[in-house]
UniProtKB/TrEMBL annotation, chain A:
Source organism superkingdom: Bacteria
Membrane topology summary: Multi-pass membrane protein
Keyword Transport included in the entry's annotation: yes
Predominant place of localization: membrane
Compartments (UniProt record): Cell membrane
Upper classification of the organism: Bacteria, Pseudomonadati, Pseudomonadota, Alphaproteobacteria, Rhodobacterales
Official protein name in the record: Sugar ABC transporter permease
TrEMBL record, chain B:
Source organism superkingdom: Bacteria
Keyword set, alphabetical order: Cell membrane, Membrane, Transmembrane, Transmembrane helix, Transport
Name of the featured protein: Carbohydrate ABC transporter permease
UniProt record similarity statement: Belongs to the binding-protein-dependent transport system permease family.
PROSITE patterns (alphabetical): ABC_TM1
Location in the cell: Cell membrane
Membrane topology (UniProt): Multi-pass membrane protein
InterPro entries referenced in this protein's UniProt entry, alphabetically: MetI-like, MetI-like_sf
SUPFAM superfamilies: MetI-like (SSF161098)
Residues spanning the membrane: 12-34, 78-99, 111-130, 142-165, 186-208, 246-265
Domain ABC transmembrane type-1 span(s) in chain numbering: 74-265
Length: 304, 279
């Protein structure tokens, strides 16, 4: 009996992907978590254990910014969950109507903001909302609502919500497309069976279709969560690294960027930056675990 | 009679809602593009009017072309996007083939390891990535971006491609083996052509985030000669913030290539999104 020969083609097929992924993604991820346990003292890298995290959570110089960024991030996420996903699902529900004309046209048009870069989206909305140009105030004036206008991006109390809504405008195409994909796979017979029982129109959506697409809504929620807790670009483009006015739009991404890369006169601190990255990692991991273990396993999957 | 009338009303309401939202989605893009073709006074006097013979002006585009090196930024973005897509597809397809075709020890574990990256954003590791790129002398090199985007794109690419490769008929591959084809030839000549639609889906999914990314260009390639279009237009607009013609023209120039790409690939993208590749 001869030893089985080594099938060299298997490692050759696998090697490039495993090497690039491990070297550029997995290794730096763990190395960042490791760097969070060190600190630079007199040009020397010293192991300090969890002290950076203690500073981040408790030292008033840091903790105020950290909890502010975290709270803002949750608000940012909440707006997406309450505005982006319901509107996206509603649009998908209309689009999936079997006898709707021009559905493909609407679908493509509504998806356009999603393909634009944050630079375009951020600046375009900055211009439109700008009191100098005056498009937003004069449009509100045309419908008699001018008193509602305020320089939303410049006011501490409105800026974060405004940016969240701009982000909703940009990304609404994603929940819309995913929900649409789920809705069109629901077999005609199920809907027809409901019709015979007298369930039609909107109640058919609530009672038959929505329960069937719950797994998709779960996926949309976790994608929104990961995307929001990893966001940076829009805030940076619209408000700069300082996430003004007075840090009212600061989220974890901008906070981490400022900390590890430095800005203006403040020098970058890779170790504190890594600690923030560690906190972001923990939050995302927690969210994904809740989704995988608590939501996905309990959700009933219907065999279609 | 009553029924048809009710259906008519429902259709009207549906179209009304969709048209309203389509206007919300397109209005900002429309305003930016029309105003970029107008002279300064007209931009402020009548921001919602189309450019006419009197207000038409290309002054903004002239400023952009003479002040910023947009053709170079565009070229850099192209190199990074096409390069990353090439490696994601090649390495991703190779790994997906190995994972879906051969049985070997650790197959499932390796698949799980690669799938972890689908949910964990690569940005978390930025501090160490920057440190590594500095050590490797790759800062301000387009290779740094290509490597990062390839690593980021591989997990989902492998996941999607291996799903599709499992559907390729085993008889076809066995016929190839009987004819004496090597495993490499079977992969290249028989399997790859059959999963072309899935490859297109993966390419389109990765193309937009890579082209639009601001984070990694900002950190890894801030030098003038390697700026991508996204970073280049962000910095240009930041400098010319009071020159409305230039800002609007720069925004239009950033929008138009994306719209052209979208016009070409939207079918593929929408088919990919709706085929359940992400489920």
């Amino acid at each position: 009996m001869s030893r089985p020969r080594i099938r060299w083609h298997i490692p050759i097929f696998l090697a490039p992907a495993v090497a690039v992924y491990s070297a550029v993604m997995v290794f730096p991820l763990f190395n960042t978590l490791r760097l969070a346990l060190f600190s630079k003292i007199e040009q020397q890298q010293v192991f300090v254990g969890l002290q950076n995290f203690q500073t981040l959570f408790l030292d008033p110089n840091w903790s105020e910014q950290f909890w502010n960024a975290l709270a803002n991030n949750f608000w940012f996420f909440l707006i997406h969950m309450l505005v982006q996903n319901p509107i996206g699902i509603a649009l998908a529900a209309i689009l999936s109507h079997p006898r709707l004309r021009f559905a493909a046209l609407y679908r493509s048009a509504i998806f356009i903001p999603t393909i634009l870069s944050f630079v375009i989206v951020g600046f375009a909305w900055k211009l439109i909302l700008s009191p100098i140009w005056g498009i937003a105030p004069s449009m509100l004036d045309a419908v008699g609502l001018k008193f509602l206008y305020a320089p939303w991006l410049g006011k501490e109390e409105y800026a974060l919500t405004t940016l969240a809504l701009i982000s909703v405008w940009q990304f609404i195409g994603i929940p819309m497309m995913l929900t649409y994909a789920a809705l069109i796979t629901i077999p005609e017979e199920i809907v027809e069976a409901g019709e015979i029982d007298g369930i039609t129109g909107i109640s058919a959506f609530w009672k038959i279709k929505l329960p069937l697409i719950l797994p998709t809504i779960g996926i949309i929620s976790i994608l929104t969560f990961v995307g929001n807790f990893n966001a940076f670009d829009l805030i940076y483009v619209a408000q700069g690294a300082l996430a003004g006015p007075d840090f009212s739009t600061d989220i974890l991404g901008t906070f981490m960027y400022r900390t590890f890369f430095g800005f203006q006169l403040q020098l970058g601190d890779p170790h504190m930056g890594s600690a923030i990255a560690g906190a972001m990692f923990a939050i995302i991991l927690l969210g994904v675990s809740i989704y995988l273990f608590a939501i996905q396993t309990r959700m009933r999957r219907y065999q279609l | 009679m009553n029924m048809t009338r009710r259906n008519g009303l429902t259709a009207l309401a549906m179209h009304g809602a969709l048209i309203a939202y389509t206007l919300v989605a397109l209005f900002p893009v429309f305003v930016i593009v029309i105003n970029s073709f107008k002279e300064r006074k007209a931009i402020f006097r009548a921001p919602l009017a189309l450019p006419d013979s009197e207000s038409f002006s290309l002054i903004g585009f002239q400023t952009v072309m003479s002040q910023g090196d947009f053709p170079l930024y565009f070229q850099n973005s192209m190199i990074v996007t096409v390069g990353s897509l090439f490696f994601i597809l090649l390495f991703g397809a190779m790994a997906a083939y190995a994972l879906s075709e051969y049985r070997f020890r650790g197959n499932r574990l390796l698949g799980l390891y690669m799938a972890l990256g689908i949910m964990i954003p690569i940005r978390i590791g930025t501090v160490a990535i920057l440190e590594m790129m500095v050590a490797a002398g790759l800062v301000n090199s387009l290779w740094a971006l290509i490597l990062v985007y390839t690593a980021q794109g591989l997990p989902l690419a492998i996941f999607i491609l291996s799903e599709f490769m499992r559907q390729v008929s085993a008889d076809l591959k066995d016929a190839g083996r009987i004819d004496g084809l090597s495993e490499y030839t079977i992969f290249l000549r028989l399997v790859l052509p059959l999963v072309r639609p899935a490859m297109a889906t993966v390419a389109v999914f990765n193309m937009i985030p890579i082209w639009n990314d601001l984070w990694f260009p900002l950190i890894l390639t801030p030098a003038e000669h390697v700026k991508t279009l996204t970073l280049g237009s962000q910095i240009f607009i930041g400098q010319y913030v009071t020159n409305w013609n230039a800002v609007l023209a720069a925004l239009s120039m950033a929008i138009i290539p994306v719209l052209v790409l979208y016009a070409i690939f939207s079918r593929q993208l929408i088919r990919g999104l709706t085929s359940g590749a992400v489920k």
